[in-house]
Amino acid sequence: GLVNYREVLQYAKEHKITVGAFNSMNMETVQAVAAAAENKRTPLIIQTYHAHVDYAGPDYIRAIAQTAAERSNVKIALGLDHGRSYEQAKKCIESGYSGVMIDLASEDYELNVRETKRVVELAHKVGVSVEAELGTIVTADETPEVIAEGCTDPVMARRFVKDTGIDCLAVSVGTAHGAYKYAPKIQFDLLKELVDTVECPIVVHGGSGTPDEDVEKMVRLGIAKLNVGTEFFTAYIDAVKEMTKGDSRPDIIDMMRAARDAVRVTADAKLDILTRFRV
Ligand code: 13P
Ligand code: ZN
Ligand code: NA
Fold it and tell me: Which cofactor does it need (predicted)?
């Protein structure tokens, strides 16, 4: 069955890998990323973006991810990504998710702490892990200067982890959500300080479009979890477009299979980097 974040992040630390946290929202994407993880013999976090949870229903997603976990030889966790509220996190926990992110980083510090703590209390009672965020992870059409303004303060990060008891912390170090308009400038010194001094595993978001050599450096510095979304969605959509191009009545299975295969290729490439320094 599904394991919690704590278990996969512990594996990451012991084996010097970074866990891929891949945004998935249907059977095809779940099967693709699970097959890639199995092939690389590495644990995996399947995560669903908050809007995708609302779209599909957490119970449906959980059923698909659980089937993948039961059939797999590697540890698989299922998490809510960028949860908007305590209520949304609660729904996912009740549906059998093994991890939840509560993202109140845009709120003031006190509110972020208070609500995150409520989620931690609820989640930890049933063995579910919690990720929260400090700093601002903006969208990738912003300039590196604007992205840098949201970077996580390490002093506040250490305090936030103590104040909340979370299992992993999402930080802002120069990556951004979506496809980059400008080349990202990752603040590796800041990231190193965060990894070395914050009391819990560190999560980097905005994996899509981040150059492979930057991802490799972040893996080397010891980030525990890398979130990747957009690249999977783009691969999926492009494959469907290609498949249906000039064919007004494509076979639905051919279309779904093309999407699944494309997501698998993307997952293979990411996991290659994330497991490169395995011990
Ligand atoms: P990308 O879409 O840039 O890969 O970011 C994914 C993410 O951070 C999900 O939380
Ligand atoms: Zn994110
Ligand atoms: Na990105």
Answer: Zn(2+)
